[in-house]
Design brief:
With 396 residues, this protein is α/β, with parallel strands linked by helices. It has 17 helices and 8 strands. The structure holds adenosine-5'-triphosphate and magnesium ion.
Length: 396
Amino acid sequence: MRPGPALEVDRLLDDPRTRIIVCCGSGGVGKTTTAAALGLRAAQRGRHVVVLTVDPARRLAQSMGLSSLDNTPRPVPGAGAEAAGGSLHAMMLDMKRTFDEIVAAHSDPDRAEQILANPFYQSLSSSFAGTQEYMAMEKLGQLRRADEWDLIVVDTPPSRSALDFLDAPQRLGRFLDGRLIRVLSAPTKAGGRAYLKFVTAGFTMVTGVITKIIGAQMLRDVQTFIAAFDTMFGGFRERAEDTYRLLQTPGTAFLVVATPEPDALREASYFVERLSEDRMPLAGLILNRVHRSPAARLSAARSLAAAEALLPAAGENSHPANGGGAAPADATKYPLAVAALRLHAERMQLIAAERRLAQRFSAAHPGVPVARVTAQPEDVHDLAALKVIGEALSHD
Ligand SMILES: Nc1ncnc2c1ncn2[C@@H]1O[C@H](COP(=O)(O)OP(=O)(O)OP(=O)(O)O)[C@@H](O)[C@H]1O
Ligand SMILES: [Mg+2]
């Protein structure tokens, strides 16, 4: 029983109008895996693809030929795309390096050096919440402008909420020209007599308090950073806005990834609503790590009843320590069969719970197409496993 209309993955991948696919979702649901699997499948179907990954697991990165974080797309060895006339490149996002590259590209060498060496810049570029999301957007914009690929598949950073990817660039922008930063940067900006005029008692008090809290050196760092960075603010915002608009064009397809669990599906719901508010094109939901059973016709209830029937009747093989609860499997002549039946019952209950959750999502968002991917017995860390995921995505 399908939760919603089927998501036609191959049709999406084959359509030359699809230029960007963004895989979003909450933490750990399979965004990186899905992005890599879609990229591989699209390339094997003849498209020139680049996959932008964020923090891929080490073994997956290795199998995609990503041994170093050099922030440029590399061909994926053994992708097997040539036969179909396609190609596959992949890269890992290095957010610090992307930030540094922007600084270098938008300021003269002296100023760039001054910014790069600034401790405040260094901590902002590697740790500010949202920097990674902003840099993913920035890199996406760069790849699109380079126009070397006809499909860019974007993985999004690990964050609790899928919305962070859309919110973070604006948050970073707001932070960079927010009030606190203005107050802190005012002394160096104004300078000289204008500065003296500007310094009111209140203002001195504010910076005084801030200096106490964050330290004089830090304040100076922030001030020099802002002074040097000031000219670039406009550029940052403009590019973030450009990329935002790019995401709204019909060539973009958002795929929301979720596991069939309450938290992940709740996040997916928020995200779907937000995309429609922002008029961003949603292609569908990928329900990842769905459980299935090879013996789905044997219900949980019947399976438990069968296990029960294999157990000796009460008192027949007494286990005082058992306290009258379910008899342990070893109290029967068929311990393996009992264990297997109980395991099957548990799995059938899990499958039923997953199905209810998926149906609840689809009832709330009836128009959203869904593709399901079965939970694999092992982690997905090589091209062969990615291929299996790609097949599962398109043959649900
Ligand atoms: N269908 C699947 N079956 C089995 N394992 C899977 C499946 N999909 C993903 N995994 C595994 O689950 C783990 C998390 O997947 P992945 O790294 O793609 O998630 P993510 O959403 O990118 O996580 P993060 O939010 O941390 O970036 C990985 O070890 C991956 O191999
Ligand atoms: Mg990831």
